[in-house]
Design a protein that fits this description.
Layout (H helix, E strand, L loop, with lengths): L1 H8 L5 H8 L2 H18 L6 H13 L6 H9 L6 H13 L7 H8 L7 H14 L1 H7 L5 H11 L5 H16 L4 H4 L16 H7 L14 H5 L24 H12 L4 E4 L9 H16 L3 E6 L9 H13 L6 E4 L4 H13 L3 E4 L21 H12 L9 E4 L11 E5 L13 E3 L1 H11 L4 E5 L6 H10 L6 E5 L2 E3 L6 H9 L14 H7 L3 H11 L6 E3 L1 H15 L2 E2 L1 E2 L2 E6 L6 E6 L9 E6 L2 E5 L20 E3 L4 E10 L5 E10 L9 E2 L6 E8 L27 E9 L11 E4 L3 E5 L8 E8 L8
Parallel strand pairs: 1-2, 2-3, 8-9, 10-11, 12-24, 14-20, 18-21, 22-26
Antiparallel strand pairs: 4-5, 5-6, 6-7, 13-23, 14-17, 15-16, 18-19, 19-20, 22-23, 24-25, 25-26
Helix pairs in contact: 1-2, 3-4, 3-5, 4-5, 8-10, 8-11, 10-11, 16-24, 20-21, 24-25
């Protein structure tokens, strides 16, 4: 059975799915045959997850097992590579039961080898938009765009749906322009009241878990999601109303004292370890902790959990605070766990005196796992543990020789977690004062108690520590905050583990923690992601209990929304082609709006002379169907210049490559409107442009089932393209580091810190929503 599970997992099924498949004997047998046939076709190569998923879907739906090898071959050779093609293939086989299939008929019915060009997509969408133009203009963005997509999918059966949608969105935007305030106004609609059976209400209440409307966060700002009763959190001082909260005889007195000290104010904290740079997952934690306090007129501490001197560096302390403030939050106070080292030590002594802790001589390897036997020193006399703990502090034991352990069993079954261990590493703040350091399990809840935190918000993996959190505060008879857990935020096509990022840096795959291909916050800032976009993304993800895994393109969509309104336009040429305008009477200047949709927001001036540069892709020597830009027989307009140019002469170098065009120009008012307008530069600045793609080839580079050889084997060789001789108009000449621009028809870009007065360096933040090659 284990062998079969491994075989099924090798094509991308998770363990649970593989085991479920084994319960169906016929399905398991057929799937195994398909995998064996696929391996026979591939030889030494492995079956990737995409093909594996297709194989599984095919086997579960195939009624005629005699066609198994036939369809397996088509999937493995990539002739069938989409769900749409697979459905067509199964339908064809079902309707053609004869023994010998006509492959030509089959290929035609399944779209095998069909290539839909961008020009074909553009033309088809253009016809559909024209058909609905009047209604679109009347209803604008209230028009049901699904109608356009439905007709486009019918007309372009085998086209990539994502590309089709991008084209529809682009042409709608071109027709209607950006959304206005009127477009953004929501329709007033009264939702019918749900008539829930009373017996269902308790059940529904339970499945909502901690959060109200967990799936109903769309359109709500983060503050709306966090304010007041939006979350089922306790009110300050009412900790005892929380399910699972442990009430002792002294609880109410401690809560009363807590309220006197805080005045009933909400208090949260963001407690990172200063041993690495914050990443996109931390952005959710920052927004949740600082946001919850802000939404409820409370305060939030930035507390460094600096209890492991071996891994902490000053640069991480600085970068963490910088990123919190970059996201727009100001800590009420910056504190450190090390601020409380003496108090934490005194409390540990008290814990021993109360009989809740003991000094243990078991080694670290003996404490690993969940089913370890009780320590032989668990019941040693209190006075003996006090003496040994004092000797630990005085440096009379070697590292790993002894620990202080707490007498408790955690929710995950782990027994007697360590409270203190010995480390002879100087601390960045306390130097050599201490050689024993508290652990997270001991420190976290006590620092929360000391700072009078009302809501200790942490990610779901800390749920197993909730019982120890309550136990320790109560064992020491201290005020006990409430720990609330929420789901982590993860992204595909990346890694955020500190250890793995360090490996990427050490192997030279990325330059440093702020390499724009990473998803650390410093990397996102360097790439040009606005903090507002990251916060908007966190708001869209919502405050959920479940772990959330998102695609990077969803974050990029938030980036585009912000940059569309905030990044001034400029013109840049990545692959220049020289153009000489032979009949331009004189050089002049052209005024270009910073925001074409709202010219009141300003403009800039660029020179316009006889010599300009255009993108090489904006000229084709041989006319092709659907191509709308410059050819020897087709003129093109120059954006903002008011001219239309026509080719008179094509000049080539010794290798036969086009190196220059000679053209004539005519005022756009005096000639027929051209099919397209292109961007250009004149008397430009030379610059370097860095184009970024996903760092990894697979969605889950850390998943052994998806990437058996490990994440370092999954690096995308095309994740960085450097263009050293790009041209940009002079309006960006005085830009500062991290200033952002939209290079028209190219994408959004940000000025990199590597820039000098001699050469500007731009990072591509994101592409435009539409494919620039089709405009």
């Amino acid at each position: 059975m284990a062998d079969m599970v491994s075989i099924f997992m090798s094509i991308g099924l998770n363990e649970q799915k593989a085991k479920e498949t084994l319960k169906n004997e016929a399905l398991s047998s057929t799937l195994k045959k398909a995998i064996e046939q696929a391996r026979g076709l591939l030889g030494s190569a492995s079956i990737d997850k995409t093909a594996g998923t297709m194989l599984y879907n095919m086997v579960t739906r195939l009624k005629d097992s005699t066609r198994l090898s036939f369809l397996t071959e088509y999937i493995i050779t990539r002739k069938i590579n989409s769900e749409l093609q697979l459905s067509a293939a199964l339908d064809f086989i079902k309707s053609h039961p004869q023994e010998n299939l006509d492959r030509l008929q089959f290929d035609a019915a399944c779209g095998v080898g069909v290539v839909v060009t961008p020009e074909q997509i553009e033309d088809a969408v253009e016809l559909i938009i024209r058909k609905h133009k009047d209604q679109l203009l009347a209803e604008r963005y209230r028009f049901n765009m699904g109608i356009l997509m439905g007709e486009a999918r019918t007309a372009l059966k085998w086209a990539d749906g994502k590309i089709v949608k991008n084209e529809v969105d682009m042409q709608v935007l071109h027709l209607l322009g950006p959304k206005t305030e009127a477009d953004l106004e929501k329709k007033s609609s009264k939702k019918p009241k749900l008539n829930l059976n009373l017996e269902l209400k308790p059940f529904l209440h339970k499945i909502c878990l901690l959060f109200v409307g967990e799936a109903n966060t769309e359109g709500k700002s983060l503050m709306e999601q966090l304010r007041g009763e939006a979350l089922k959190f306790h009110k300050p001082g009412e900790n005892y109303k929380t399910e699972g909260y442990v009430v002792t005889p002294n609880t109410m007195n401690l809560l009363k004292k807590h309220l006197e000290e805080t005045g009933g104010q909400v208090r949260t904290r963001f407690p990172p370890e200063p041993n690495g740079i914050l990443h996109i997952g931390h952005a959710k934690a920052i927004n949740f902790n600082f946001g919850y306090a802000k939404a409820n007129n409370g305060i939030c501490f930035l507390r460094y959990d600096d209890t492991n001197p071996e891994k902490e560096e000053e640069k991480y302390f600085t970068a963490i605070k910088e990123m919190v403030e970059w996201l727009g939050y100001k800590p009420y106070a910056v504190t450190h766990a090390s601020d409380q080292f003496q108090l934490l030590y005194d409390l540990a002594v008290d814990l021993i005196r109360r009989g809740h802790a003991y000094v243990c001589h078991q080694r670290g390897e003996e404490l690993k796992g969940h089913n370890i036997p009780p320590s032989p020193w668990r019941e040693r006399p209190v006075e003996e543990s006090l003496l040994l703990f004092d000797r630990m502090r005085k440096g009379m034991f070697a590292e790993g020789e002894v620990t202080l352990r707490m007498k408790m069993v955690m929710e995950d079954g782990k027994m007697d977690p360590v409270a203190y261990r010995i480390k002879y590493t100087p601390h960045h703040r306390t130097g050599d004062t201490w050689c024993i350091y508290p652990t997270y399990d001991y420190t976290h809840c006590l620092c929360d108690s000391i700072e009078n935190i009302t809501h200790s918000l942490c990610t779901k993996e800390f749920q197993a520590r909730r019982s120890s959190y309550f136990w320790l505060c109560n064992a020491l008879d201290l005020y006990c905050p409430v720990q609330w857990e929420y789901g982590r935020l993860n992204l595909t096509y990346t890694v955020v583990s500190k250890r793995k990022i360090i490996k990427l840096v050490e192997t030279g795959i990325v330059r440093d923690w702020d390499d724009p291909r990473l998803f650390t916050l410093t990397a996102l800032r360097r790439r040009g992601f606005p903090p507002q976009a990251i916060n908007n993304f966190c708001a869209r993800v919502g405050v959920t209990v479940a772990q959330t895994t998102m695609e990077p393109h969803l974050l990029e969509a938030c980036v585009r929304e912000v940059l569309n309104d905030t990044a001034p336009r400029a013109m840049a040429i990545l692959e220049p082609l020289k153009v000489t305008i032979t009949n331009l009477p004189t050089s002049t200047e052209v005024r270009v709006p910073d925001f074409p949709a709202n010219e009141a927001k300003g403009s800039h001036v660029v020179p316009f002379s006889k010599t300009i540069f255009i993108e090489q892709s904006d000229f084709r020597e041989v006319m092709e169907k659907g191509y709308k830009r410059l050819t020897p027989d087709q003129p093109v307009g120059l954006r903002h210049a008011g001219y239309v140019i026509s080719v008179q002469r094509v000049i080539k170098d010794g290798c036969g490559k086009v190196c220059e065009l000679e053209v004539t120009c005519a005022s756009s008012d005096s000639v027929e409107k051209p099919k397209a307008f292109i961007h250009w530069v004149s008397d430009p600045l030379r610059c370097e442009v860095r184009l970024y793609e996903s760092l990894f080839l697979h969605k889950n580079p850390e998943d052994p089932a998806e990437v058996p050889a490990g994440f370092l084997s999954d690096i995308n060789p095309n994740s960085l393209t450097v263009i050293g001789s790009a041209l940009v108009d002079r309006s960006v000449g005085k830009a500062k580091v991290f200033d952002k621009f939209q290079f028209e028809r190219v994408g959004y870009f940000s000025l990199d810190p590597d820039s000098t007065s001699e050469k500007l360096v731009f990072n591509r933040t994101v592409t435009l929503k539409e494919d620039p090659g089709k405009i």
